[in-house]
Amino acid sequence: MSRKNRTPEENARRAKIRELLQEANISSMADIQSLFRETIAEFIENSSVVVGCWFFYLTTVAFSFL
To answer: For residues 51 and 44, is the Cβ–Cβ distance under 8 A?
Structure first.
């Protein structure tokens, strides 16, 4: 979508994302990937029971098709 066709809501969302990236000193795609990895690792660490339950559910569903 070109810039002139963006909605005011989308422009506001993009401005907020830009602001957050600047506050976190994110300046490259590598920085974004690193932040993403750290966030996912923290999420998994803090919710290992939930992840374990999802893994059990997914493997149960997968094996039900065999």
So the answer is: yes
Look at the block and give the residue holding tokens 């919710």. Answer: 47
CA distance 26 to 36: 11
Contact 29, 18 (CB under 8 A): no
- Tokens matching residue 39: 């966030």
**Cα–Cα distance for residue pair 6/8, rounded to 1 Å:** 7
Q: What is the pLDDT of residues 17-57, one digit of tens each?
A: 888 888 888 888 888 888 888 887 887 777 666 666 666 66
Q: 48-64 and 29-46 helices cross at what angle (nearest 10)? A: 90
DSSP element (H, E) containing 46 = helix 29-46
